[in-house]
Amino acid sequence: MKNYKETINLLKTSFSMYGNLKEKEPKLLKEWDENKLYDVIRSSQIRKKTFILHDGPPYANGDVHIGHAVNKILKDVLIRSKRMNGFDSPFVLGWDCHGLPIENQVEKNKGKLFNKHHFFEFRKECRKYALYQVERQKSDFKRMGILTNWNRFYMTMEPNLESHSIRTLGKIIKNRHLTRKRKPVYWCIQCQSALAEAELEYLQKCSLSLYVAFKSLNSLDICRRFQKSSPSCLPIYAIIWTTTPWTIPANRAIGVNRDFTYLLVESNNFVFIVAEGLLKSFAKVMNVSKLKILSSCHGSMLESSMFSNPITDFKVPIVLSDHVHLNEGTGLVHIAPGHGLEDYDIGMKYKLEVSNIIDKRGRFVNHVHPILDKLSIFKSDEQITKILEEKNCFFISKNIFHKYPFCWRHNVPLIFRSTTQWFISMHKNHLREKILSKIDSISWYPKWGRERMEEMVQKRPDWCISRQRSWGTPIPIFIHKENNKMHPDTLSFISDISKKVKCFGGEYWWNVSIDEFLKNGDSKKYFKEKDVLDVWFDSGSINYSSINDDFKDYIPDVYLEGSDQYRGWFMSSLILSVAVSNDVPCKTIITHGFVVDKNGKKMSKSIGNVISPKEIINEFGADILRLWVTSSDYSKEINISKEILSGIVDHYRKIRNTIRFLLSNIKDFNIKTDGICFTNMIALDQRILMITKRFQKKIIRYYENYNFHKVINALLTFCSIEMSSEYLNIVKDRQYMNLSNSLSRRSGQTAFFHILSALVRWISPILPFTSYEVWKFLAEDLIKNNLFSDQYYVYLQEISENNVVISMENWDLVFLVKKEVNKVIERKRREKIVNHSMESNVVLYVDSKIAGVLQVLEKELKFLFLVSSVKIMDVENSKCCAMKADLTDLHGLKVEVSRSNGKKCNRCWYYFNIFEGREKKHKFDDLCHRCVLNLLKKEEIRKFV
Ligand SMILES: [Zn+2]
Ligand SMILES: [Zn+2]
């Protein structure tokens, strides 16, 4: 048998089957660096419209985890897709650098005392530590293919940004949103600091719950209120229920609901007050059966009757509170304004004392009660119970499980502790209403983000922006020692100080003497605020124009962060933006879910389901990591597991192999000299280009709507169905067998080139490494003509269905017929009538409609169906023959498949009839007619397939 391999157009490409990404990618990164790729791209886009994504800064501490990777990759994909769509879209990365975790780390290394005694040295160490962390995280992000200028990024600790935060504070003061007050705040005894909303999480906690009796100071008065004529000689008690026994010494009132009915009840040897609705459950807890109801009255009747705190003997009134409910307890609520937010609000209303009884480490301060001095509140249940027992004021205790706020860093229960702090007030100057009115000016993806934000703004308490720590932006305010007010010239001081901070950093404030600002004895009356700003104030105040001078007053187009940022960065940015300029911080907010394992469980070291981005990159490469990120519907939780990743690798291969096939088949092709114009192309090539055009439209729309996972779905459908099974499988024969310079082959190559040119742009936002590798095969000048500054392939926009040989509608019918033919062949193969599709002779019995479409292609149909011969018969005129044929699912089509009697061509493997088209014998008797033609360098004419 002769070997015709040499006569077949089998070309090899150096674009490998398996990407070997983990080795190729670092080389590309180096190349991009050396070519200053990001700057080249930016400068090529100078006159384009801008699209700005403002990067919410991650915290500069610890390794980059999979959640960081999802966030930064989504941003990078979004920005790249915007460039592809004709925008100038810069990417400036940021880092959040102040705050407790870094302070803790440095304290760990240097000792707590170092912080206390060497303030400036300590801050230097913090700065150094943060910078080191930023560099580490930067190199991780860089490896993921994030494209930016790595020398241009922002850090909240930079002097100019500290200065910006201080100026923002000035504007907040000017707009009358700032207050200073003593108020309970969430406090972590490990952090020894107030915590932001975003720093706490609710977990189940076991607490001791107590029923405690407060003795009435005037039984006569109580009886009068209950309209009871003959006072009992027994003492009267108000019974409260609490799950935080340690707050009882700070009790300043008892709350009742004005609308509830309260009962005066006599038990064995005392009289107590309880809400009617809770009497039964209370009696059950008390385990008493004999109760005598003496009288009843409305809650409103009880206001300002006086009782005695059983631990401190403090005289406390009954107050009216809307927060009293009938879910549990007694309907009388213990109120400690220094240790609860609702309690504080009632305290303000009734002018109660905001008493704080614990220090920053969570221990009782002295003089609360002799046996409580310096005792940790978390170890005080026993002592409190003991005191109450001694006073006969303790009823019953039991352990309950309930949701309780914990510090997300230390995992310890938080307490409400009242301290004097700076707050951005939500009600002063109508800030809450102003914010709510702006929510609709932002577009939210997914849509539920809007409701979520609205609900959080409605509920949000005043924002405590001061922290009693060292590592942060200073709050440069002089406070009056007696009346606690800020100096009348504060705004002009802040303006001066912010200028100095821009040059010398926040340290300037701690260095400067009060006398430099305050003259004429004022310096003796005021003191310098030592607190620093909450880190959420830092990041929230840094808007895009503060990091990029070219974009003054530009409202960024997009914020894109994880769903935890509704109470974090989205919230702080929104509050500050409205408080400062009564405007939104950005036009669109996109949220992504958290990464969970395949069972929906959070990543955790103890479960052992943690997968780090580094692991994925080291095993598969960054493009696989990016493909996983974009394949997920990020509006929900994002799943990851070994199995999911191996599925992603398969998807990658599908895309890669499609590209590889195209590349290897255009190796001897130059679009300028060999390209065929659309109208002269083979019909099937026209068809695939029309389909490519349709896909491009779809993919652009998906990118525009930030539906990246739909881009991937479309890409995969395109590669495996439209391309692989409905085009390449068919066209392969023509490309391999026909004369290398024939019109039919050049037509196919032209289509390949255009498809590749479109495909490489579609994938480039998601797979920058792979697309760049492809680009090197396509582009003549990589620097001048760079893929990443290019736009979607315009050629596709120029072609039109008006110029096609066969309409898309007719093609659809042809492919329906092909599908039915394949089914019959498959059946015949199972019945062993044919061994291979190419061995089949096919007769189609068709109605006139199908015939009209198929007859045009008749001679070339065998190449479409991949069979030896195709004959078209009219089903009406050949009824008896059609009897033998197989019915199909397509109306008006019957298919008959038989085995060819011909010979298998040694070159193309189609079966041929030995006498077909042959005038005389020649040396190629093992080849079919078209192969002979090709070998004799005579062009095989194709028009359709
Ligand atoms: Zn903590
Ligand atoms: Zn042949």
From TrEMBL:
<keyword id="KW-0862">Zinc</keyword>
<feature type="domain" description="Methionyl/Valyl/Leucyl/Isoleucyl-tRNA synthetase anticodon-binding">
    <location>
        <begin position="685"/>
        <end position="843"/>
    </location>
</feature>
<dbReference type="GO" id="GO:0005524">
    <property type="term" value="F:ATP binding"/>
</dbReference>
<dbReference type="InterPro" id="IPR013155">
    <property type="entry name" value="M/V/L/I-tRNA-synth_anticd-bd"/>
</dbReference>
<dbReference type="InterPro" id="IPR033708">
    <property type="entry name" value="Anticodon_Ile_BEm"/>
</dbReference>
<keyword id="KW-0067">ATP-binding</keyword>
<keyword id="KW-0479">Metal-binding</keyword>
<protein>
    <recommendedName>
        <fullName>Isoleucine--tRNA ligase</fullName>
        <ecNumber>6.1.1.5</ecNumber>
    </recommendedName>
</protein>
<dbReference type="InterPro" id="IPR009080">
    <property type="entry name" value="tRNAsynth_Ia_anticodon-bd"/>
</dbReference>
<dbReference type="InterPro" id="IPR009008">
    <property type="entry name" value="Val/Leu/Ile-tRNA-synth_edit"/>
</dbReference>
<feature type="short sequence motif" description="'KMSKS' region">
    <location>
        <begin position="602"/>
        <end position="606"/>
    </location>
</feature>
<dbReference type="Pfam" id="PF00133">
    <property type="entry name" value="tRNA-synt_1"/>
</dbReference>
<dbReference type="GO" id="GO:0000049">
    <property type="term" value="F:tRNA binding"/>
</dbReference>
<dbReference type="Pfam" id="PF08264">
    <property type="entry name" value="Anticodon_1"/>
</dbReference>
<feature type="binding site">
    <location>
        <position position="931"/>
    </location>
    <ligand>
        <name>Zn(2+)</name>
    </ligand>
</feature>
<dbReference type="InterPro" id="IPR001412">
    <property type="entry name" value="aa-tRNA-synth_I_CS"/>
</dbReference>
<feature type="binding site">
    <location>
        <position position="928"/>
    </location>
    <ligand>
        <name>Zn(2+)</name>
    </ligand>
</feature>
<keyword id="KW-0963">Cytoplasm</keyword>
<dbReference type="GO" id="GO:0002161">
    <property type="term" value="F:aminoacyl-tRNA deacylase activity"/>
</dbReference>
<feature type="short sequence motif" description="'HIGH' region">
    <location>
        <begin position="58"/>
        <end position="68"/>
    </location>
</feature>
<feature type="binding site">
    <location>
        <position position="561"/>
    </location>
    <ligand>
        <name>L-isoleucyl-5'-AMP</name>
    </ligand>
</feature>
<feature type="binding site">
    <location>
        <position position="908"/>
    </location>
    <ligand>
        <name>Zn(2+)</name>
    </ligand>
</feature>
<dbReference type="InterPro" id="IPR002301">
    <property type="entry name" value="Ile-tRNA-ligase"/>
</dbReference>
<keyword id="KW-0030">Aminoacyl-tRNA synthetase</keyword>
<dbReference type="InterPro" id="IPR002300">
    <property type="entry name" value="aa-tRNA-synth_Ia"/>
</dbReference>
<dbReference type="GO" id="GO:0005829">
    <property type="term" value="C:cytosol"/>
</dbReference>
<dbReference type="GO" id="GO:0008270">
    <property type="term" value="F:zinc ion binding"/>
</dbReference>
<dbReference type="InterPro" id="IPR050081">
    <property type="entry name" value="Ile-tRNA_ligase"/>
</dbReference>
<keyword id="KW-0648">Protein biosynthesis</keyword>
<dbReference type="InterPro" id="IPR014729">
    <property type="entry name" value="Rossmann-like_a/b/a_fold"/>
</dbReference>
<keyword id="KW-0436">Ligase</keyword>
<comment type="similarity">
    <text>Belongs to the class-I aminoacyl-tRNA synthetase family. IleS type 1 subfamily.</text>
</comment>
<comment type="subunit">
    <text>Monomer.</text>
</comment>
<dbReference type="GO" id="GO:0004822">
    <property type="term" value="F:isoleucine-tRNA ligase activity"/>
</dbReference>
<feature type="binding site">
    <location>
        <position position="605"/>
    </location>
    <ligand>
        <name>ATP</name>
    </ligand>
</feature>
<feature type="domain" description="Aminoacyl-tRNA synthetase class Ia">
    <location>
        <begin position="28"/>
        <end position="641"/>
    </location>
</feature>
<comment type="function">
    <text>Catalyzes the attachment of isoleucine to tRNA(Ile). As IleRS can inadvertently accommodate and process structurally similar amino acids such as valine, to avoid such errors it has two additional distinct tRNA(Ile)-dependent editing activities. One activity is designated as 'pretransfer' editing and involves the hydrolysis of activated Val-AMP. The other activity is designated 'posttransfer' editing and involves deacylation of mischarged Val-tRNA(Ile).</text>
</comment>
<dbReference type="InterPro" id="IPR023585">
    <property type="entry name" value="Ile-tRNA-ligase_type1"/>
</dbReference>
<keyword id="KW-0547">Nucleotide-binding</keyword>
<dbReference type="GO" id="GO:0006428">
    <property type="term" value="P:isoleucyl-tRNA aminoacylation"/>
</dbReference>
<feature type="binding site">
    <location>
        <position position="905"/>
    </location>
    <ligand>
        <name>Zn(2+)</name>
    </ligand>
</feature>
